[in-house]
Every structure is written in structure tokens, then in C-alpha cells.
Amino acid sequence: MRRRPHALLAPALPLAAMVACYAPALSRGFTSEDFLLIRYLGQHPPWEQGASLFGPWLGIAGIQFFRPVSTLLFALEIAAFGTFARGYLAVHLLVHALAILLVWAIARQLARPLGATIAGLSGAAAALLFALYPLHPNAVVFVASFATLYGGLFALLAFFAYLRYRQESGGKARAFWLLALAAFVLALGSYEAAAVVPVWLVAHDHLVLPSGTRPHRQRIRGWLPFAALLGAYLLLRRHLFGQVVGGYEATRQRLLAPQAASLLRDALLSIQRLHLPRFDAAPSLGTAALALALMTLAPMALFASVPSTRAAARPWLLGWVVMVTAMAPFAFQPVVPASGRYWYIAAAGAALGLAFLAAAIASALPRGGWVVGWLVVAAFTVPWALNLSAQVRHCRAAADLAGAVRVSLLRLPAVSGPRFVTGYPSFLTDAGGVPLAQVFHYGLRDAVTPPFHRPALDIVMLPPLSGNELTPVLRGAPLAAVAAWDPTRSAWRSPDLPPDALPELVTQPDRATPPMGELRLRVSPVAGARFRLLLAAPINGAVFDLQQAPSPQGVLRVPLPLDFLRTNDRLYGSPVYWWVEERDAGGQLIACSRMRLLRRRAWMPGPRDQKRSLSPIE
After folding, report:
1. Number of Cβ atoms within 10 Å of the Cβ of 322
2. Which sign does the torsion angle of CA 6, 7, 8, 12 carry?
3. Which pLDDT tens digit goes with each residue over 508-566?
4. How many CA atoms lie within 13 A of 452 on its CB side?
5. What is the 3 state secondary structure string of 593-609?
6. Rounded to an integer, what distance in angstroms lies between the CA atom of residue 250 and that of residue 478?
7. What DSSP character marks residue 367?
8. SS3 for 421?
């Protein structure tokens, strides 16, 4: 049956709105991890190292990502576009457009029992809400968020194909079921958060499908293979990483040892912020609880009191299931615009829930109901569209700032050794300090090396330091070049270096060689003193608080951050520098060691060692 021309306007309008909002980003350059990943995967394409696709992401076990599918797809982008930023942006906008179409199709499938008019409103509203969601630029425009985009696309495809499977019969149903299973495999191989898809299928079969369609026992056969596949995936993760739950360490700890009160608080705040993404005020738990009550109790009262709306209740509830479960892998932590990619899939659930709420309101009013329904949608889409346009501008401003940082660094006079840099902007922030978009959270060194620049500059990242905090660098490498970013001039400058007046913490003599993975220093601790290990490395500068107090003999044991060191070694294979600070109870710096080169043999066994000679630092 030929679709009527006006019916094509339903998916076309959300796509047009998305293109209009994202158009300013097409001239945006790279930022942060964009440089790192394009450099690394360009030098180490996965098809030349096939075994790496079936292990930890980029061969880095400490990060606990398994993303062979999305990594391969992104590597193909790199092979096609190289350093041409617009190519990546065009592809990612296309992937986002396909996701918008899938949200439209999912809503249409769920709304079929509601009639053609309401189904049309539900599909168009869900697609429009998802297209204009204001935190999506972090997933769509930030090139390094490719895993979120591809994983989200495949997860939505699996859900849509499963819905079609439940609405078809015979060979067509089997084909859609196989498509759903294949898409779920691709989703798991792209993005860890796709593991929640089987929950959507179970919720659909046992909450949404009419009770007379088939017995619940028969419905299990549809989703059970997806649950089995998820179990096999979790066993694979255990084999690769030694544990089932992975990702970032802080999130993993929150999931493995959850605190009910903290999770509930974060869930309430996240649900409120997901629907009302404002960051100009601290979120209130009471306001969030009230908002949640209104968003749930009011629709349920409508469904209970108006019979004509009850058909929309189940798909509305399914939207909430999608939203809440999609936030669960991130322990329900509230996000900011610079981490909005974590809510990419959850926003699809919110869009479905709001769309079916609007459809229910429309069906409750015999005359002009569709107008009221669209007014409900407009109450979200209008402020979301304005917010989205602002976030796209922020992403472009962050890329302009990253370009200024890079160009200014290239204009500095050449030096024979490494150049240590500090104070570079990690994020573009608003007046309240909320991170809006990545600038150089990572990737500054990559931005001035091939393929982005030849010859490569030898850049080592320091933590944010100033004043006498730079004393360890002066002690370890008195002739080293140090540059600090000056945000007022948008240029690099030589920092004001203090006189070497701090007491020095000295390393333990060779006769007391510490065990591998540990350093030892001789200290004279002050009452209440705290110690910190600082690292300067090509990947980033890092600071680690030391929890252990010195021994009665004044020996401080310093455990090394092995995950950080292994990640830097994998991505750069370059040296790391270290020193230790001693601060008093008020945080005042009172002593420090000198910066030294950290030899690889100090933390990893094997014959390999850094071949570089840096005698002034060693």
C-alpha cells in the first residue's frame, strides 16, 4: 500500500528541525579525545590488528570497555576522512537522523491500537522530542562519542525489529526476530549501556501486549534468547576483565556496592534534569521528588478516570521503562552538557513517555484534542530547541578554543627537549563552572603530532600548577621549557617561576629498593600533613592523594596508579614523570620532591624499558 504524501511529513519535520539546529556545528573542528582517537586508530587500524577487536577496547584492560563494532566503524571513518572534521560530523548527523526515524517508527508501532490519528501524533511527537533534546550535541557533535551513537542506533533498531516481530506472523515475523537479535549483537559490541535492551523486550511482552494475544509462557520464547545472549556477553566481560560490571571505575563501584539512599536521590534528580535540563541552579531533592510525583501520578490519574486514554497507558509506561533502565548503567548519576551522551538512549524513553502522554490528553478531548496534545509537546520542544541551539553554539565555541590552544602552541619557539604545559582548558564552562563541552580533557599532545601536524612536538602534560607548585619541575629539569595557558590573552606564556625555597623530599637509597609498583621517599612529616603523587605524562597530568601515612622512620610508601600508567603506555609508549608534594592540614604546600623520570621497569615486569635519555631529570 502506497503511503500518502502528507504522512511522510511526520518524520520529515523532526529531521528538518534537527538539521536546522545542528547546521552551525558542521564547520566545527576537533576537540579533546577526537585528536587522540583519530591519531591512535589511524596508526593502529583494527583490521591490521584483528585480535585487538576481540579484547579490551584499544587493548586497555583498565578502562573495561568492549567495543569491537563501534571501534571498527569509527576506524572506517578515520580511513575515509582522516583529519577532515566535516566528514565525521556529516556521518554522525546521519546516524542521529536514523535514530530519530527509529524513535518515530517505534512510537508508531506502539500506537497502532490507538488509531491512525493518535498514532500519527505519537510518532511525530516522539521523533520531534528526541530530535530536539538539548543534551544530544555531546553525542552527535563530539566525534569521540561514536560508541554512544552507534550503540544507541543498534539498540533502537533491535527494539523496533522486535516490535515488528510481535506484530507479524510466519516468515516475516521470523525475519524481524532475526534482525532484532543481530541488531542486539551489534549494540552490545558497540556500547555497554545496550545491555538493558532485553529488559525493554520483557516489559513490552508482559506489560504492553494485550493479555489475550498469547499466554505469557509463550511470550517468553521471544525474548529468552536475548537474555541468554546477554548472559554470554557478561561471561565474556568476566573473561576479559575479571568481572561482569565494567566501565569507569567510579561508576563500577557505585553499581557493585550501591547505597540505596544515594541511588534514589540521583535517580530523582536525573529524571527531573532529563526532562528539564537546566544547570543554572543547584538541583533540589524536594523539587525533584515533586516533579516526579506530578509526572507519574497525574498521567495515572488521567488513565484511570478517562477510559479513552487507557490504551496509551501501557506504551507510556514502556517509555518510562526505557528511560529508567537506560540511566541504570551509569548509576543514575546526573549529567552536565559535556557528559550528555550518557542520556542519549534515556532521552528516547523520555520522548516516548511524553509523546504518549500527549496522545492520551488528545484522546481524552473529543474536539480539538490534537491541538491540546501538540501544545503539551510544544511545552517541551520549544525550550528544548532553544537550549539545543545554545549547546550547539557551545560545542562550536569549544572547538574554536581548542583550535586557538593548538595554534598558539605551534607558534612557540622550538626546544630541543620536551615542553611541559599546564593550565590548558579541559572544558568550556559557563559562569557557574558547569562543563559545557570538551576542549582538551585529553588529546593536546595528539593535536600537534601526525596526522595533525608534522613534525611532531614533544609535549608533556602537567596537572594544573602555578607558583611554587612548579618547583619540582625546576628541580628535576632546570633547563626544561614550561608553558602555561593564559585564558585572558588566549595564548601560551612562560609562567612566573618561584625561587627554589621549599624543603626537598628525597628518594629512598638504593639498598632499600621498593617492590615493583611502589616508590619510597624519606620525609619529615608535619602533624596533619597530607601527601600527593603527581604525574606528568603525554596522556594527561594527574594527581593522586596518598592515604598511607609515613612510617615511624620517616619512609613514605607511594603506590603507583597502574591503570593510568598502562593506559599511557598503550596509547603513547612514552615516559612518565613523577614527584610528591607534602601539604599541611590547611592545604599549604610545605615540601616536595624533584620531578623524575618513571622507568617502565618500576611498575611493569619485562625487558622493555624507555630508551630515552633524560639525565637532567633522572
Report:
1. 28
2. positive
3. 655 556 678 888 888 877 777 899 999 999 999 999 999 888 888 788 888 999 889 98
4. 25
5. CCCEEECHHHCCCCCCC
6. 37
7. S
8. strand
Look at strands 419-422 and 459-461 and give their pairing: parallel
For residue 247, what is the DSSP state?
S
Yes or no: say if 273 and 384 are a contact pair by the CB < 8 Å rule: no
In contact, 467 and 498? CB cutoff 8 Å:
yes
- The DSSP symbol for 207 reads I
Q: What are phi and psi of 136, to 5 degrees?
A: -70, -25
The answer to whether 425 and 492 are in contact (CB under 8 A) is no
| The pLDDT value given to residue 411 | 93
For residue 276, what are the CA distances in angstroms to 21, 22, 236, 593? 19, 20, 38, 48
Helix, strand, coil shares, percent, the chain, to 5 = 60, 10, 30
311 and 113 Cβ atoms separated by less than 8 Å: yes
Tell me phi and psi for residue 411, to 5 degrees: -85, -5
Question: Please, which residues have CB within 8 angstroms of residue 437's CB and are 6 or more apart in sequence?
Answer: 31, 137, 138, 142, 337, 338, 391, 394, 395, 397, 398, 399, 427, 428
Hey, is 29 helix, strand or coil? coil
Contact criterion met (CB below 8 Å) for 135 and 337: yes
Are 425 and 485 in contact by the 8 Å Cβ rule? The answer is yes
CA distance 109 to 156: 13
Weakest mean pLDDT among 6-10, 72-76, 165-169, 290-294 = 6-10
537-567 burial by CB neighbour count: b if 16+ within 10 A, else e? bbbbbbebebeeebeeeeebbbbbbeebbbb
Residue 291 CA to residue 270 CA, distance in Å, equals: 11
| Percentage of the chain exceeding pLDDT 90 | 54
Dist CA 77 CA 154 (whole Å): 18
Backbone angles phi, psi at 111, to 5 degrees: -95, 0
3-state secondary structure of 133: coil
Summarised one tens digit per residue, pLDDT across range 238-291 is: 888 887 776 666 666 666 666 777 888 888 999 999 999 988 777 788 888 888
Backbone angles phi, psi at 419, to 5 degrees: -110, 125
Spell out the SS3 assignment of 512-579.
HCCCCCEEEEECCCCCCCEEEEEEEECCCCEEEEECCCCCCCCEEEEECCHHHHHHHHHHCCCCEEEE
313: which 3 cell numbers? 497507558
In one-letter notation, the amino acid at residue 136 is: H
Residue 48 corresponds to which amino acid? E
Q: 184 with 159: CB under 8 angstroms? A: no
Query: From CA 538, how far away is CA 569, in angstroms rounded?
Result: 9
The set of cell numbers assigned to 276 is 528539564
Using an 8 Å Cβ cutoff, are 428 and 435 in contact?
A: yes
Determine how β-strand 542-546 pairs with β-strand 530-536: antiparallel
